[in-house]
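Q: Hi! First time asking for a complex rather than a single chain. Here are the components, and I think there are two in total. Is that enough to go on?
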Amino acid sequence: METAVFIVCAAIVLAGALGVVLARNPVHAALSLVGTLFGMAVLFLNLEAHFLAAVQIIVYAGAIVVLFLFVIMLLGVDRLEDLSVEPITGQRVLAGIVGLGTFGLAVAFLVTSDIGLPGQEALTGPITDQYSNLRQIADVLFTDYVYAFEATAALLTISVVGAVVMSRRIARADQAQEAPESQEAARDD
Amino acid sequence: MTAVLGPSVFGLDPLYVGGVGLAEVLITLLKVGVAFAILLVAVMLMIWFERKLISDMQNRIGPNLAGPFGIFQTLADGIKLFFKEDLVPEQSDRLVFKLAPYLSLVPAFLVFAVVPVGGDFSGGNGRVSLFGHETFLQVSDPPVGILLVLAMSSVAVYGVMLAGWSSGSKYPLLASVRASAQMVSYEAALGLSLAAVLLKSGSLSTHNIVAEQSVWNWNLWVTWVVPMVIFLIAATAELNRPPFDLVEAEQELVGGFHTEYSSLRFALFFLAEFMNTITMSAIIVTLFLGGPNGPDFTTVGWLSGLLWFFIKLMLFLFAFVWLRATLPRFRYDQLMDLGWKLLIPLSLGWLLVLASYDVAGDRGWNRAAAVIVMLAIMAALAGLLALALRAARQRRELDPQGGFA
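A: Yes, that's all I need. Here is the structure of the assembled complex.
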């Protein structure tokens, strides 16, 4: 049963991933990404990581890809890409080589390493109690990794503030004095 | 099978504890079928109820020809929509255009699966007996429970967003950009007010949340009212219902995100909208008003829970219609101000106040003092926020062209 679920979900994840790369329309690519994320969520469920599955949908599918789509729509890049021209010469060949190389490295690591395949060992130990999925994550997050957690939160806040500051034109005092006049000029137009 | 997957994959329902055989599968299918049918009929009645009530409030008669009191009006409308010509605009993205209504509809159905609609929670642990099998009166009780509601409401954003984009027309696109910004913003307030409930219940499972509120221990007063008010406002915005229905502001956007839709696909959007109203009301009842909890006033054990649930549900459905009949639509900047500058800070602050009460209890401090100190800190922070907002507004008035370059 677990294997069957895994096979179906793996197929969905791979199909979605291929869609992200191969779709010519950015919106279709983003939708394929959503498909991949849903497949991942079901894989999490299969591993009895219910909370991770829910968070995967809420955060990634519900917020991040929505923001992607938002940017795509606002910037108006939602048209078909012209794939006949290559912006950087040799880029595609290089991308292929690097991709294959990374894949080869991953496979080589998995074959040669002696710490086992991912998923066989859990850092935080096995899930012992079926009800406390959330409690286990919270325990680890707010005790062992509390500084990393808080630092990440601070980093995210700073980056949000930074993005707002960068996107605003700082009004200098002399500009501020002129502003009402320029508004009137705009109204005359 | 349970030995392989573990019981928690199926949720915490006692039905699956003894293994999954044919009887369990049939009972589950029955529950799914009944929930599906009830939702469809409820939508039909809800549309009639809303039209009748609004016409009463506006001194009109409303639908009165199809059947007694016009109760079959929705059915007639549905049949009309079904036989209308199905248009797919030439400029549209055909695949996404056809997909979008289902992305709205499916989450609306799924949310109802986690709502406990009945059961005796006063002493019977909420279990009922169906054909000799103990089970809960809800389709499923997954361990993530209430998070499924948040997940589905974030998936529902896609339906609106993609419908507007794929229409290949500017007004639907504007509406969908508005809608997705609105829904994503208010999801934050929704989640934060939900956190207050989770703090008090200590569980994500909807069944446990209801069981915690047994008889009169409702979260409405356990969390001191404020989270429910925030949840109700955020839910109204999440549902795109008046006064937050900027998604379909006819004066500005022609018809909104579904301008280009006709026939059955339009009907699907409508179905999803009303179904979301019903399921969201059911969620509010579950979270804050104790779901089926209430004093048993019947002699049959299971009937009282269902009746209490129905009464509370109707209360919110009435409130939603009432809001629509009385309040004018918000302006978009007012909507965003309310969400980001009032509801989110307030729900976050309230969560901390509730937590300080709990921590004081654990540590043996004076609870009242802890809450008062916390409220003072929150008031100071609110003052700072108000000052910052005032400074920003003054600056904007000095330099109206400023801001985003």
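A: Chain A has seven helices and one strand. Let me know if you'd like any chain examined more closely.
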